[in-house]
Amino acid sequence: MASYEPSFIFCRNRNMPVCQECEGTDFDERDGLYFCQICMTQSQDLRREEEGEDGGTFYNVSSVITKKSERKKKVENKGRPWHSFEAFTIIIREQVKALIKLGASTKLKDVVLQLWCNYLSKTGTAFPEDENKMDVFMRKHMRQRERYPGSVECPDIQPVQFRKTWKKKYGVSKKIAEKDLENKKLMTALQNEEFYEGDNPTEQAVAEEPDYSSDEDEESSDPNQIRYMRRSVEFMTMLKTLCFCYIGTLYTDHLVTLSDIIRWADQKEIPYYKATSLLPTDMKFCAKDGPTFSTTVLKYENLEFETEKLIQYLNLNDVPDVSLQLLTSKYIVMLDLPGELHGFVINLIQPELRKEDDRRYNDMLAMGYIVTTLQLLLGLDDSTERELSHIAVELNNIFHNSEFTCFKKANTSILML
């Protein structure tokens, strides 16, 4: 019978398994299972085999042999570097497509594109007329995504601004201070040595930790300055995307109003509140992108104010005025009112009283003229209908088979709608 003697073989080279938790290489055997000596995590990459000295039948000699793990590490898709205005361009493009589906002119696409390109050029974001102007804009209004862009290999944005604020408020951490001290000692000891290109450890020590000491280009944390910056016409926001679309409709579709834009956005006919879901999957978001693409509840006054600022900033002196006559005709048809009412409303409008700010609240004025005309025709003065409503309620309580018109109930039903 062949003789054999026990021997234990541990591979400590590249075949030696490594603990998945602590990267340790020493393991203890317990009942045929192997556990890391540091964190006591069971290893799935070890098995026990017995072999004879002559390479024959397996017996009681133990040897630890590694087996190739079939598990593959998941590669995280970090996307690619991208610019904030690239995302705004995609959002505006999708909003224009939605407006065209709702019946807007196909020319809207070219008009909004021209407005957007003029805006990018005027702010200095893209193809500026003056390169120095671009630098001034970037220092004043650039976000962290543009100020500290990532690379193709590592598109993650470094939290430089947070580190600057932390350093300014709390000072350098103990870990960074110790690392800086070690780097300085290393540089002092090797300053007179000669190295081949790329082998100098002092250069690697300097490149490992970027310099966050300069606060020259750091955004101010003052809430007043942040609020002023966001109100600037040069600071692009989600609200301005709708402003570009509305200005485009003024050139192509004269019957589209701000109220229509707000209603379509609320009804999700136009992508606005969740427009960031339209971006490609390789455009990954970070924490600093939240405020950039945040949205608020749309208000008529805010949208109208931003639109007027854009018109003045872009020097759009040829923006067509929306005719009140056309708007009143539009609302009369939408409300299914008698066609004869149109003539009475036109006679009530006095165009010579509105020579300036023709775009301001024009849809509200059109509805105001219609309501005023109805009041004159039906003899309503906001007082008579109340008295008639009280009488109608008493008559309905007496005569159950009859239904007299009650203006209060009609107003309540309209508000519910």
Attribute tags:
mainly alpha; 417 residues; two-stranded antiparallel sheet; single chain; TAF1B/Rrn7; 17 helices; 3 domains; nucleus; Rrn7_cyclin_C; 4 strands; disordered N terminus
Description of the structure:
The protein has 17 helices and four strands. By secondary structure, the chain is mainly alpha-helical. It folds into three domains: 1-72, no CATH class; 84-147 and 219-313, no CATH class; 324-416, no CATH class. Helix 1 runs antiparallel to helix 2 (108-123), helix 13 (324-334) crosses helix 15 (362-378) and helix 14 (341-348) packs across helix 15. Mean pLDDT is 72; it is low at 1-14, 57-70, 205-221 and 412-417. It comes from Mytilus edulis.
Which H/E pattern describes the elements?
A: EEEEHHHHHHHHHHHHHHHHH
Q: Which bin fits the share of residues in helices?
A: 40-55%
Distance between the termini: 98 Å
Structural class: mainly alpha
Strand order within the widest beta sheet: 1-2
Number of separate strands: 4
So how many helices? 17
Question: Can you lay out the helices and strands and say which pair or pack?
Answer:
Elements: E1 27-30, E2 33-36, E3 46-50, E4 62-66, H1 84-101, H2 108-123, H3 131-141, H4 144-147, H5 160-170, H6 174-189, H7 201-208, H8 223-231, H9 238-252, H10 258-266, H11 289-292, H12 300-313, H13 324-334, H14 341-348, H15 362-378, H16 384-398, H17 407-416
Antiparallel strand pairs: 1-2, 3-4
Write a brief caption for the model.
By secondary structure, the chain is mainly α.
